[in-house]
């Protein structure tokens, strides 16, 4: 397929470019990149964002030494689609990843999609991924086959398998006997879910993983990767996808603030990675911290802090307004960028940005070429990072992520200060167990976020303001859908087969490959 002709959507992007969003940036040496992605983190989980939060001194220092982005958004409100968009710069409706992959998934991020790691490796970078993958682990969907020279982590969410010391709020998996099904059923204390695996490249090094030491091990592996890359003389790209703040949460003795303790652990981990990067010489490494989606509200006290983005309209009708939803609490996430000497310190940007922008921005800074024959939803926002501009997206699309409507479809969007919903409701559970009714809105619900950040009261459809903005909303929505329909889109394989489940010991019902906690046993076997 040849390079497509310019669409109105692309013309809009070019208008922004020519209007001053882009300016040339010449680096004498390719910079290093570290992208740290927190899981289920709330916008209010950073003290720099929300004064009530006291557990993030390292992240707050990162904000003080870099730029804080307060209108930054994930590209979906759930795990796999958000990660796929980070690594491709494309929404799920284009890259094919519209919902989460399972432990038995045969597929993953479609192989015809080009990842950020593949582009940067081609440009001479050492590439490493540490932590949660969740973009397919079977065969060629493994991180080592998607552009990463090195991988250390868990192939999906760490609540998708049992462990011996799971933390809050999952049961443990006692060792199950190696007998038949009848014997297993008779053992009420035998948790038969497959144990959670820990990979180093394509080898399972521990199953079940010992979650209590995972943060320390991630920090150690990140430090080793950075040092190896530095010794090689090559620039590096390190993608660290944390287990924090997704349940189960590790914490000290019961009775303590479980969420706060886990937040402090995450903060210390980020601080350690920054310290290692700084040791190479400040100014050589760009560090970008953000989150994959908002808090998982149904986990109650184990869920994060939304800050002011409470989605009051939805809450009044029941259901969550956080993870899985297109309310601000579902996709507005904390974002910090630190690059001494390049990114201004103590700056707060109100530009409308997205996780989608990481791909084209880092590719541009590396002096690499974007993949051909496909359109990106992200922008090269390096002028915003450098403080030359505070102009981001004029329009930002928010795909359905499980709460209402067909997953992946676009039924919510942002136009300047206006938040627009064509569908709201059922699917995302609140702490009280409610989900609320699914509702279609034609004409759409429209909120002015400049004066209603809580999304409490939509504009009156008869008001002068609503009537003035509705034509622009309709045009932007139609152009976006036309552009997607004309694009070279991918389709993910969501089929499953038990043979795809990672297992280091097929003779054990839980795939256990060591006999006691805290003891690792390396094995060359991986079930692919």
Automatic annotation (TrEMBL):
It is an enzyme of class 3 (hydrolase). GO terms for cellular component: lysosome. Keywords: Calcium, Disulfide bond, Glycoprotein, Hydrolase, Lysosome, Metal-binding, Signal. InterPro entries: Alkaline_phosphatase_core_sf, Sulfatase, Sulfatase_CS, Sulfatase_N. The keyword Cytoplasm does not apply. It is found in: Lysosome. Gene3D superfamilies: 3.30.1120.10, Alkaline Phosphatase, subunit A (3.40.720.10). Residues 31-368 form the Sulfatase N-terminal domain. Its main location: other. It comes from the Eukaryota. Residues 1-28 form the signal peptide. It catalyses: an aryl sulfate + H2O = a phenol + sulfate + H(+); Hydrolysis of the 3-sulfate groups of the N-sulfo-D-glucosamine 3-O-sulfate units of heparin. Its EC number is 3.1.6.1, 3.1.6.15. Coiled coil: none annotated. Its cofactor is Ca(2+). One of its GO terms (molecular function) is arylsulfatase activity. Belongs to the sulfatase family. This is Arylsulfatase G. It comes from Regulus satrapa (Golden-crowned kinglet). The gene is Arsg.
